[in-house]
Write a sequence for this structure.
């Protein structure tokens, strides 16, 4: 047997040239069933140009939400639970600073970002640059010696992200008007290419650590513009260094411990995977607006030495690096990160990093926090100074041990 499809009811032509919300095409998120259920309006309606439904449903939406006709191409979302409409003109663009929708005018009404004044014509990617066919880059969030980090937008997931670009300014420059990076000379090119390999290795390490919630998550990484990129979760907050400053330059020992304890647990998990960080410091620990702490940089991470000393690239952060990191052939392991974590704690308590390790090996004048006027229990002082011992064999040998000793000492 054959049957003819029953056409959907049509609406009368509206009195203007515009197509009103009563003629809108909508996606109904709640199925309507027969009987009493059919009398209930859908819980939410997203008005889309690409999805069509029965015109009667669209009429119901307009009746429930608005007494005045609204052109359907201005409606982004309709929510019956709040009886509100979100009106979004179709020609709107995303601000390249905050990535909120706005009219195509230079100044963003949400964050006051002026796209004409802020456009960059030099070293960094121009706002609105597209990467990997999926991401847009906005303002520069930070610039270090080896890379730049941009605010980004993921077109696929429709979320803000952080985009990190390998950009060693001592080795290369950007081609004017393009995104491509070019080494200064053939000699610089050798170091530049080696750096790309290390950058991608950092991305792979972070990808391995995605299940550790205290470590920033890498969503994607790729090569483009003759360099490499990493796409990470966007964190809102401040570095631990700024956190210290915002709390008067010194932290109460309990606050310092509660803030860094999650980092110690995370580093224990990292060590159990056979990795060491080698670059822990207040600048590489991030405190979010939700009070979470995250490790944000693994560029110096390496496999730990199992038994004998092995060759490591010398990686130093004055005040935070232990003596063994000053040597290319040395025995580095979890105890090396223990020193750096203790130095970070020391900075949190006193407002300054410890004296650098090499100076201490010649003349150890490092004072415990209590002698600098910091009110801490004597046992806490002792554990912290033991973790800062220049002899790695006299330190706590794991993050787990360090955290346990500090918590016991705190009482």
């Amino acid at each position: 047997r054959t049957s003819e499809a029953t056409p959907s009811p049509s609406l009368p032509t509206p009195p203007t040239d515009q197509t009103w919300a009563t003629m809108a095409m909508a996606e109904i998120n709640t199925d309507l069933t027969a009987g009493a259920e059919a009398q209930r309006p859908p819980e939410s309606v997203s008005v889309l140009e690409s999805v069509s439904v029965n015109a009667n449903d669209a009429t119901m939406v307009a009746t429930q939400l608005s007494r005045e006709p609204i052109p359907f191409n201005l409606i982004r979302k309709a929510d019956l639970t709040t009886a509100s409409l979100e009106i979004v003109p179709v020609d709107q663009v995303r601000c390249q600073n905050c990535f909120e929708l706005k009219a195509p005018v230079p100044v963003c009404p949400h964050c006051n970002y002026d796209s004409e004044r802020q456009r960059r014509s030099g070293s960094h990617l121009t706002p609105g640059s597209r990467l990997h066919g999926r991401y847009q880059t906005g303002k520069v969030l930070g610039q270090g010696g080896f890379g730049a980090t941009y605010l980004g937008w993921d077109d696929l997931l429709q979320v803000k992200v952080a985009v990190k670009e390998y950009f060693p300014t001592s080795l290369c420059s950007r081609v004017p008007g393009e995104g491509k990076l070019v080494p200064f000379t053939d000699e610089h090119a050798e170091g530049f290419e080696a750096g790309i390999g290390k950058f991608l290795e950092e991305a792979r390490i972070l990808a391995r650590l995605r299940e550790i919630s205290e470590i920033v998550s890498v969503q994607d990484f790729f090569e483009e513009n003759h360099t490499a990129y990493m796409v990470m979760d966007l964190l809102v907050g401040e570095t631990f260094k700024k956190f210290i400053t915002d709390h008067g330059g010194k932290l109460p020992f309990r606050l310092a411990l509660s803030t860094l304890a999650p980092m110690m647990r995370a580093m224990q998990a990292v060590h159990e995977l056979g990795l060491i960080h080698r670059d822990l410091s207040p600048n590489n620990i991030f405190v979010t607006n939700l009070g979470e702490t995250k490790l944000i940089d693994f560029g110096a991470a390496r496999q730990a030495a199992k038994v004998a000393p092995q060759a490591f690239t010398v990686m130093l952060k004055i005040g935070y690096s232990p003596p063994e990191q000053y040597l290319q052939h040395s025995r580095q392991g979890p105890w090396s990160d223990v020193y750096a974590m203790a130095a970070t704690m020391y900075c949190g308590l006193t407002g300054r990093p410890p004296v650098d390790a090499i100076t201490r090996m010649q003349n150890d004048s490092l004072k415990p926090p209590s002698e600098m006027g910091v009110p801490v229990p004597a046992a806490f002082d002792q554990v912290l100074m033991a973790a800062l011992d220049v002899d790695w064999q006299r330190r706590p040998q794991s993050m787990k041990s360090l955290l346990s000793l500090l918590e016991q000492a705190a009482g």
Remarks:
- The helical segments are 55-65, 186-208, 240-246, 253-272, 334-350, 357-362, 378-387, 399-410.
- The chain has eight helices and 21 strands.
